[in-house]
Amino acid sequence: MQTIYVPAGQRAELILSDSTKVWLNAKTTLTFPSHFDNNSRSVTLDGEGYFDVTHDKNKPFIVKTNQYDIKVLGTEFNVRSYNQNAVFETSLLKGSIQIESADHLAKLLLEPNEKAYMEQGKLKTAPITQYDYFLWKDGLICFDDNTIEELFQKLQLYFDVNIIVKNTSILEQRYTGKFRTGDGIEHILKTLQLRTKFVYENEEDKGNTIIIK
Prior knowledge:
By secondary structure, this protein is mostly beta strands. It has two helices and 18 strands. It has helices at residues 148-159, 185-193; strands spanning 2-6, 12-15, 21-24, 28-32, 41-52, 61-64, 68-72, 76-81, 89-94, 97-101, 107-110, 114-119, 122-127, 140-147, 162-165, 174-180, 200-203, 209-212. The strands form three sheets. Strands 1, 2, 3, 4, 5, 6, 7, 8, 9, 10, 11, 12 and 13 form a 13-stranded mixed sheet that branches. The protein has a three-stranded mixed sheet with strand order 15-18-17, covered by helices on one side. Strands 14-16 form a two-stranded antiparallel ribbon. Strand 6 (61-64) and strand 7 form a beta hairpin. The longest helix has 12 residues, at 148-159. It is elongated, with a radius of gyration of 18 Å.
């Protein structure tokens, strides 16, 4: 077995032994075999990954996460399941996938352009409405009418920082736009300052903490 870890602020792309393409987002760990055996193709994901799976009707491809297993034959889908929080979301772009709980009691089939997500401990489905979101695999962080609070939550995850907001009056302001991950968090914050009045301090001596005032 091999393990690849993608640090904060970075992403990675790799091709597995069956020619399946995988893109990994920041703070993501993928464990996979050097070569798949004759019966199945199985990998373990902690974080976010985009999979373009090579079709093989005799050997299903399985992505194991902390909460659910995703079983496919050949398809394109995105998985977000970080062990450090309770978020689980799978979005299907092409093909078909089956989501199964660890105890095998709950199963769900997804249709193309549909996503499954956790809400109050239950798995629910909804249509995909923000396709720009998946541009993270091209190094872009995209927002579509998201609050600045949601934006800060994502920046904390991708850049491994702790953002403390003291100026809470700005949290409900909404943004639509794109940022390049490679430009760094300070570039993103300075861009946000063009529309929203706040100042920030980067206190690296306190565990890489950013204070928003």
